[in-house]
Amino acid sequence: MGIMSKMRDKTHILLIIVSASFLGLIVFEWGMNFTGPTKKAGLAGKVNGRPVTTVQYDEIYNGLNEQYRRTNPGAEITPQVEIGFREQAWNVSVDQALVEEMFEKYGIKVQDSEVLAAVNSEINPPMIIRQNFTDPRTGKIDRQVLEKVRADPKAKAFWIKAQEVVKRELKVDKLLMALKTMTIVTDPEVGELVQRQFTTFSASFIPFPLSYAGAESMFPVKDEEVKAWYAAHKEQFRQEPTRSGQFVYFPQTPSSQDSLQVKNEIDGLVSQFASAPSDSEFVKVQSDRPGAVNVAYSRADFTPAAGNAVFGSPKLAPGQLIGPVADRGFYRLLKIKAISSGQPAAAASHILIRFNPADQAAAGRALAQVEQIYGELKKGVPFAELAAKYSEDPISSKSGGYVGWFTKERMVPEFSQAVFAGKPGQILGPVRTQFGLHIIKIEGFDQKQIVCSEVARQIKPSSHTVESIRRKAMNFQSDAKSKGFEQAARLEKLEVVKSGEFSRQSLVPVIGMNDKVTKFAFKSKEGDISDVLETEKGFAVMKILSKNDTGYRQPDTELNAMIKSELVREKQGAALKAKLAALSAASGGSLEAIVAKEPSLKIFTSNEIRWRDGFIAGAGADRQLVEAMAGMKLNKLSPPVQFAGGYALVMLTGRQLPQGVDVAAEKGRILPQFLKVKQEQLFSEYFGAVRKAAKIEDFRQ
Q: 3-class secondary structure for 679-690?
C-alpha cells in the first residue's frame, strides 16, 4: 500500500507538456480521477457544445489547490488565490475540450500497442512513467519497481486511468507533429537572421523631434476624429466584461481596547521571558513569529517611531529587554543578545515627479518642474513643505516626503545607489527610476545592528470589535437603500471609493480580489446596492455604477485624451515628415548642408550600430531607426525615417560583417532553432485562433 499511496500523492495533477519551450509552456492538466464515471455529473460549462462536467472542473481545481499546499506549506489560501485557482481550472478545462475536438478533426488515434510501446520505451517514456518510476540516483526508469506495480492487483484502477493519460499524451505528440509539418523555413529567412545577428552599420543622422514641426497647439483634433480613430482601432481595446462601482469600506481595525489587551498580555510575559531557560522554546510558544530567535535587526526592520524606541532606548545592552514596542500592527518585546555593526541603513526623504517616459513632452515638463522645485529650495523653502506640495508619492508626501530607514536592496537600484553614495543632509537629483524623477534628501546613516530574540503579538480585532464593525456596515447599507447611497455616506461622513472598471479576475481598489464582490457585481443591474459583503480584512457595501458586456473598453475621458494625444502626434509626424522631405531636397542630399543652414541641429555619427539589438554607440538604443537602416542604400540620404521621438534623416555609410564569420556555418546552426521557434509560434497562433472562435459557455456560479 505504501507505493500506491506515494503514487496517488504524485498524480493528483498530471502535467502534459505540449511543447518543451512553447511560450512558457502550454500545460494541459488531466487529473487522475478515481471517483468513477462522470456522466451523471452537473455541467460547469460547454465548449462548442462539448460538455465540461463539474467533476472534471473540480478535479483540476482540487489538484491546483493541493499542489499549492504541497509547494507552499503553511501558506494561507486567500480569496484572491482561490479565485485564481478557479479561473486557471476553468481555462484548463476549456483547453482540454478544444484539444479533444482537434484530435477528432485531425483523426488522431492511438492504439493499445502504441501505449504499451511508450510505457516500455527507454528513450522517451510518457511523463506519468517518468514522474512515478524514475530512480533519483540514476535518472532512469526503475523497471523492476515498474513491473512490480503493474503486477499488483491493487493498482488496477491506477493503470486503467494511466493508460488513458498516456493515450492523451501520445495524441498530443501526434497533433504537434501534424501541425509541425505545416511549418516551412526558407533559406532567405535564415540568411536574414544571420545577417541580423552579426551585421553592424556605420551611419550619420540628424534626429528631429516632433516639436520641430510646431507646437502641439498647432494641430487641433476634432471629436469626430477621435471617434473615427477609436472605430478604426477598436480591436486594440478588446477586454473581458467589466463593471464599475462605488463602495464604502469598513476595515476590521482593532480598537484601542484590543490593542491594550495585547499590550497587557505581553507586559505579563516580561519577567518570564527575562528568566526563560530556553529563548527558542519560549518564543515558539508565546510569539506570533515563532522563528524570531537570534535574529539580526537594523533600523530598516522597524517603523521610524519603533526604531527610535529600540535603538534610542537606555536599555539597549546585551541581556536587557526592550518593549513592548508598537510596530506595524504588532507589539514587539526584544531580548538583546548582542550589538554590532552590520549592513548600513539609510534614511531619506524624496519628492517624486511622475511622467510617461515614452512622451518626450511629458519628460520635458517633469524636468522643468524639478528645476522649479530646486529654485524654491535655494530660496529656503523647507524640503518637507515642497514634498507635501509637489510629490506624487501619495504615502510619503503626507509625512514631508520621509520614506524611513532602508537597506540597499529594499529600494530600486538607482535610488539606493544615489543615496548610499551621498552624505547626510545632501540633496540629490533628479534621480530617474521606473517610477519617475526623484529629488532626494539624505536624512542619515546607521550601521548599528542588534541580535535578539523576540516575542511578537499581532494586534487583532476581537470578535466583539468585528461584530461592532459589521453592525456599522449593516446600518449604512440600510440607510443607503432608504436614503440613497451618496446621501447616506454624506450624512455619516464616510468615504466613498470609486472602483474604476474591473473584470472577474482583476483587483478592486482597497478590497482586492473577492468572490462575493465579484458575484454581486456581475449579477446586478446598474444602481443596485449590495448587502454587506465580507472581505478578507473588512466589510464593504457597493453600488453598481456601470456594466460593460460589449467586449471592448468604451470611450471615456481618459481614453479620449489618450486618443487625442495620439492623433496630435500623428499630425505632428505627418507635418514633420513633409518638412524634412523639403529640407532634404533643398540640401542636395547633404546632412552638412542642412546643419550649415540651421546650426542648432546636430549630426550624430556612429561606426558601431548593431542590427541585432538596435544599439547606436553614442546615442543609445533605437530599434525602429536601426531596422530602417537595414534597408537603406549606401551613401544616399534617406527619406524621413521614424524613430521613438520623431523623424530622422540618415546617411548610411557602411554595412559590414565581423571578420571570421562563416555565414554558411551560422545558417546551419540557426536553422533548427529557427524551425522550432516557427513551429511553436504556429501552434500558439493556431490554438489561440481556435480558442477565440470557440463558443464557450460558462455555467459556474
A: HHHHHHHHHHHH
Helix locations, 204-323, DSSP H: 223-232, 256-267, 270-274, 279-286, 304-311
Q: What is the pLDDT of residue 515?
A: 86
The residues near 473 (Cβ < 8 Å, ≥ 6 apart) are 248, 250, 532, 539, 540, 541
Per-residue model confidence (pLDDT) at position 41: 54
β-partners of residue 335 are 321, 453
Q: Percent of the chain beyond pLDDT 90?
A: 63
- CB distance 406 to 271 below 8 Å: no
Reduce the DSSP state of residue 610 to 3 states and report it.
Answer: strand
Backbone torsions φ then ψ of 280, nearest 5 degrees:
-65, -40
Cβ contact 410:300 at 8 Å? yes
* Contact between residue 651 and residue 637 where contact means Cβ atoms under 8 Å apart: yes
Q: What is the pTM of this model?
A: 0.63
Q: Which amino acid is at 206?
A: I
Q: What is the pLDDT of residue 128?
A: 83
Buried residues in 338-365 as b, exposed as e (16+ CB within 10 A): eeeebeebbbbbbbbbebeeeebbebee
**pLDDT mean across residues, the chain:** 88
In 3D, which of 1, 78, 152, 197 has the Cα closest to residue 507?
78
Domains and CATH numbers, the chain: 2-180 (no CATH), 200-237+557-656 (no CATH), 242-253+463-548 (3.10.50.40), 255-460 (3.10.50.40)
- Asked whether 171 and 108 are in contact (CB, 8 A), the reply is yes
| Grid cell of 394 as nine digits | 501619495
Could you tell me the three cell numbers for 358? 515614452
d(C-alpha 640, C-alpha 101), whole Å: 51
Backbone phi, then psi, for 84, in 5-degree steps?
-60, -40
Residue ranges in 379-527 assigned as alpha helix (H): 383-390, 413-420, 463-483, 485-491, 515-523
